[in-house]
Amino acid sequence: MILTEEIRTILLYSRDEAMRTGCYAIAPEHLLLGILRHGDNAAVRTLGQFGLDPAAVKADLDGRVFREQAIPYSDEDDISFTRSALNICSYTLMEAMRCNQDVSSIHLLAALCDCPGDFCSTYLHGRGITLQVLRTIMSRSSEASTRKTSLPETEDLNKLLSVFYRDKEIFS
Fold first, then answer.
1. Where are the beta strands (DSSP E) in 41-139?
2. 79-125 pLDDT, tens per residue?
3. Lesser CB count within 10 Å: N end or C end of the chain?
4. For residue 140, what are the contacts with CB-CB under 8 A and spacing of at least 6?
């Protein structure tokens, strides 16, 4: 199980979205904004299946997190994850492991759906997108090429999880 280039790009975009919206911390909303900014991924296609327009979702999220002034790029090293965003990243890895797949946008979307009390979870649930629905979609997915042949060793999973907790490595 690996972090795909897609998920790495989404995490970079999430940092950029936090900075664009004037936040020094990547929150769950920024993770969803990162998915939307990436554009060509299974999560965005899934949102489209539910009739959600990415531009409208972005506008809703911006209305929630946007501050008056963006963070200057000279401060990019000061950007970190909120505790809830770290939890979502960890859950993303576990969801990919459960599916025996490399980590991708759909696993991140699933994790965003399963964060009780969080704005993203409430937002997605209100539009019919739940963890159970996403798991059904993932299990029916014909993207067998991303399916792994064996489960990762505990040591490998711990290495992946540690990347999120030393979040500067993600942005290297």
1. 80-81
2. 999 999 999 999 999 999 988 888 999 999 999 999 888 899 999 99
3. C
4. none
Q: How far apart are CA 6 and CA 65, in angstroms?
A: 24
Angle between helices 154-165 and 83-99 (to 10 degrees): 150
Place of tokens 């998920």: 7
25-75 residue pLDDT tens: 999 999 999 999 999 999 999 999 999 999 999 999 999 999 989 999 999
Tokens encoding 136: 């059904």
CA–CA gap between residue 16 and residue 34 (Å, rounded): 8
C-alpha of 76 from chain center? 19
Which residues sit opposite 25 in a β-bridge?
80
CB of 12 closer than 8 Å to CB of 30: no
Residues 6+ apart with CB under 8 A from 172: none
pLDDT tens for residues 134-152?
998 888 774 544 445 444 5
Strand runs (DSSP E) across the chain, as ranges?
25-26, 80-81
